[in-house]
Amino acid sequence: MAKLLEQAALLLLDGFELDRTLWRLVNLLRLHLPLDALVITDLLLDLREERVLAEATAKRGRLVNATRPLTRYELAQALSLEPAVIVVNQPKENPLAQDLVEFWGTDDFSLMVLPLIHREARLGSAHFVVRQRRSFSQEHADMAQSLAPPLAMAV
Length: 155
Prior knowledge:
Helix content is 35%, strand content 30%.
């Protein structure tokens, strides 16, 4: 775990092309947890929006820079400084995953949302996605939590 965290931190802080860096990070993380995509967002709270900065799969990373309005539930989550990872293994039953259920047209996926907090401010989130239900365990959530500091600094 310590070695993974060290490698991830070095990737995130070494030269900074977010799309390429996320692609490399996804390929590193896939050795330790199920992962099809990693999406990094930041918050535009004054506009009540979330902006997708970049996303990556094992094949490629890309810059996105697209915004979407936050639901009331998401806004409440965004204002929280609770650092806990949110694991959604049953997307139909969780309001946080409803947009993705509609977007993909399926609930056959799992989602982990890692809040990115730095100096008492919620900056955004890292969204870990696997296209299969019940994919994430507590061990995966703990591993993702250990990535929060370098990811927050990257955002």
